Structure formats: structure tokens, C-alpha cells
Amino acid sequence: MTKTIFEKIIDREIPANIVYEDDDIIAFLDAFPVAKGHTLVVPKKVIENIYDLDEDTGAKLMSVVTRVANAVKDTFEPAGLNVVQNNGSYASQSVFHLHFHIIPRYKDQHDGFGYKWVDVEKEDNTPEIRSDLESALKNRLDA
To answer: Fewest beta carbons within 10 Å, which of 41, 52, 85, 122?
Structure first.
């Protein structure tokens, strides 16, 4: 099986600007940043998407995501910050190894990130939808 670009970075087969690393997680500056300070946080364990993420790795990952986000805030003083994680090609996942984007946002500065909510006609969240989701969560929590 072919390694992803993140596996190659983890294995030091290609260079990266690594800003954090421990036994389980690595964080490095995005090679194609949409804003100054755009950083990726990646588990070293090969996990394709959030659906395959175990709770232990997830807890470690979110701890590092939080620390990196705060370091980006302290370093670059952005007006805001997005934390983005995509699952599947339809959701714009292009590297099929779980990762979080830490994207600082700067006031009055256009960046390459177009994440905006647009008002469109949408389905209401009905009690039936809530009930279905509660059941699915209960099944997963009881498993």
C-alpha cells in the first residue's frame, strides 16, 4: 500500500516544518497554507478519517490541537481561527490520513479559505431527527 504524504513526513522521507512532535502526534506547517501560520495536526497512527478514530488517540489529538491553536493565537494574533477536519472526498478530504487544519484568520486580509455559512432553504431539525440521532449515539456509547 502506498504511503500518504503524512506518513512520509512522519517517517522523515520528505521534509516538513515540524512545530510539535511526541510519540503519538505530529504538527507541522501546511506546505500550501491558506493563511500565515496554517498548521496541520496529525496522529502518527494511520487512521483514514474520524470514523476510524479511537477514543484514546482522539483525546491525545484534541489536546495537541488545543495547544497548537493557542500557540498560533499567541504567535500571530489572528482576529479568529478555524479548526477544520474533513472526512471523505465529498467533504474535501484530499489526504486520506486523519488530520486537523489550524487556520488563523486575519481581519481585512483575504486568504484562501472560503468557509462561510450561506442561508439556503434547509431541512428543519425535527424531533424525529433528534430521536434518530439519540438512538444512534446510545448504541455507540453502549457498545
So the answer is: 122
Going by C-alpha positions, the residue among 117, 29, 112, 20 that lies closest to residue 66 is 20
Report which DSSP code applies to 55: H
* Full-model pTM: 0.87
Calpha distance 99→66 (Å, rounded): 14
Q: Which residues lie closer than 8 Å to 106 by C-beta, 6 or more apart?
A: 35, 36, 76, 78, 79
Q: What is the pLDDT of residue 134?
A: 87
Grid cell, residue 84, equals 477544520
Please check whether residue 119 lies inside any domain of the structure. Answer: no
Active site residue 110: no
Q: What is the CATH number of the domain that holds 13?
A: 3.30.428.10
Segment 86-104, tens digit of pLDDT: 999 998 899 999 999 999 9
Amino acid at 106: Y
Residue 24 structural domain: 5-113
For residue 13, being part of any structural domain is answered with: yes
Q: Which of 38, 97, 99, 101 is catalytic?
A: 99
